[in-house]
Amino acid sequence: MTQEEQMTPKEIVSQLDNYIVGQDEAKKSVSIALRNRYRRLQLDPQMQEDITPKNLLMIGPTGVGKTEIARRLAKIVDAPFVKVEATKFTEVGYVGGDVNSMVRDLVENSVQMEKKIQFRNVRREAEKKANQDLAEIISREENHVDDAQEKSNNDKKLQDTVKELNKAFKKGKPMDLSWLNEKDPFMDQNEKDKIKDDSGRILAQIENGELEDREVKISIDDPSAALNADNSKMEQMGINLQGLENMLPKKQVERVLPLKEAREALINQESETLIDDAKVNGAAIKRAENTGIIFIDEIDKLTGGNKQTRGEVSREGVQRDILPIVEGVNVNTKYGVINTNHILFIGSGAFADSKPSDLIPELQGRFPIRVELNDLSKDDFVKILTEPSDALIKQYVALIGTDNIKVTFTKEAIEKIADIAYSVNHDTDNIGARRLHTILEKLLEDILYEGPDMHMGDITINQKYVEDKVGNLAADENVARYIL
């Protein structure tokens, strides 16, 4: 159990406050749901099985922080997380997304997280091996060993060895072939010794960081040649294509890279051979089962708020397909079978043309915690622009700063941007905080375009600048609707 997974609800909310403005009730609810998962794991195994997560349903317009709360929550506690659009799924028997794919995606995410942990554990050993390989590659290059010519010579010598073996077999005499297991068995011993000696010298240079920018030619596994093991139909039938992929010979491709990049490529390749796939897969499935979070966006679109047209796939049918997964079911994946009993599901939707009670009763019951997120006010927009760790103003100042231009926003300018965002949202479609992105892009368009060619050190964005650039656009509702 990591320190992040043991965080209290107040600590979780405090972390969320660094990135998300307002929405205190939603933060409180998700922090309690997360803490309850830790509490469950402290109980005896029998009681653990009886306690299921209290799934959440977030209700609110777009751009108010529903997705961001869930995404940040997963990052804070280092949990597997996947976001899916409810509208991409279709009822069983129709062409379209299979609802089980959300669980398979979660497991895939969990496996990658687990691999990163295992890679860190074996990195020192993998780096040592990678440096040795690089030293030998450079040594062979300096000794003018042509690998293609060497292979051709080896093939000829191997044919000669086979002929000698046949002669010995006919005469009934044994022949020692253990030397064939050695590296470069047909290479002259003096040449081998020279390469070995030079490799030791070069290895010392590599470890001292003296050859980081030297280009080397390496052979690595070709990822594009891997067997496509993402066939969901195969997975549903319990056929593990990953095992078949491991049995097939891997295609190698040659790359010429700076040594520091070549080292990373070889470390990744070597790490794959050092870790235990079965151990990784088992730990990943356990992690996904106990800490996984699936965020189902636009769940309100599965209701019958709008009249269904003839021939349209049943929305209620999709709800009924999702229901067993939320209730708890075993799902086949290429990494093994996962049980969804204790995965936390977070449903999200605006419910502008419908209401939560329009969902089928069984699905409603599986989302017992309802959280309504509030529309953003002018003050909220000001806070979003300035307070979070990744505030938009900070992002744009940093981006423009790469062109050696220092941009400063006055307090009045920020308040004016917030006022315009609020007004445009109110007068046109309400897209929440996303409106700030469009306004800032339009506001800073000239600076972003001309920045690399400008020789001005400092630029101050004041209220007048904001009014000149976007104020008039916001005043015209028709223009604002299409530009802002």
TrEMBL record:
It comes from the Bacteria. Residues 52-373 form the AAA+ ATPase domain. GO terms for cellular component: HslUV protease complex. One of its GO terms (molecular function) is ATP binding. Keywords: ATP-binding, Chaperone, Coiled coil, Hydrolase, Nucleotide-binding, Protease. Belongs to the ClpX chaperone family. HslU subfamily. One of its GO terms (biological process) is proteolysis involved in protein catabolic process. This is ATP-dependent hsl protease ATP-binding subunit HslU. Residues 376-475 form the Clp ATPase C-terminal domain. NCBIfam families: hslU (TIGR00390), PRK05201.1 (NF003544). Residues 131-168 form a coiled coil.
